């Protein structure tokens, strides 16, 4: 990425604002800050950056959860169609296994929420989504 000074000039803001923005991007896992000649690098594989940003916007009320689900469904459908058009049997097999596991998780979740007993019918393969801390606390003024 360009140096702080160049970014500040380009966006007509202070270097302090640029520095704070870079820190926020670093916290979301989008960039990696290295001291010295390397400076700020954009991460090749941001760790959960998009998910974190979406949770943040939902928590602030910028988006309704239903809107996020709608966009996610559209993106996933397009991604599946693109991968399916490639026709790689190995990749298609992996996708089928993932879809089967997701269906099993969904069925297990329905059984456990509809059951009146304390026991569960199966274990989830993925951790449950949790609300960010700002959503679980009582609303402020």
Sum up the structure in keywords.
single chain; 60% helix; disordered C terminus; 6% strand; 2 strands; two-stranded antiparallel ribbon; mainly alpha
Give an account of the 3D structure.
The structure is a single chain. Helices cover 60% and strands 6% of the residues. It has six helices and two strands; from the N terminus they run ααββαααα. Helix 1 (4-10) packs across helix 2. It starts with a helix and ends in a 5-residue tail after the last helix.
Name the average pLDDT. 74
User: How many helices?
Assistant: 6
Order of helices and strands: HHEEHHHH
Give a quick account of the main beta sheet: strands, pairing sense, barrel closure. 2 strands, antiparallel
The residue fraction in helices comes out at 55-70%
Low-confidence stretches: 116-141
* Count of extended strands: 2
Distance from N terminus to C terminus (CA atoms, Å) equals 39 Å
What would you call the quaternary organization?
Answer: single chain
Please state how the strands of the largest beta sheet are arranged side by side: 1-2
Strand content: 5-15%
């Amino acid at each position: 990425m360009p140096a702080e000074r160049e970014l500040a000039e380009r966006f007509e803001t202070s270097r302090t604002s640029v520095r704070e923005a870079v820190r926020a991007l670093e916290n979301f896992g989008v960039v990696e800050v290295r001291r010295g000649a390397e400076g700020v690098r954009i991460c090749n594989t941001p760790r959960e950056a998009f998910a974190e940003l979406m949770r943040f916007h939902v928590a602030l009320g910028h988006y309704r959860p239903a809107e996020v689900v709608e966009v996610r469904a559209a993106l996933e459908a397009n991604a599946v169609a693109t991968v399916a058009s490639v026709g790689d049997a190995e990749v298609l097999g992996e996708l089928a296994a993932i879809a089967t596991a997701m269906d099993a998780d969904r069925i297990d979740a329905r059984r456990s929420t509809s059951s009146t007993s304390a026991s569960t019918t199966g274990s989830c393969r993925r951790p449950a989504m949790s609300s960010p801390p700002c959503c679980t606390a009582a609303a402020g003024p």
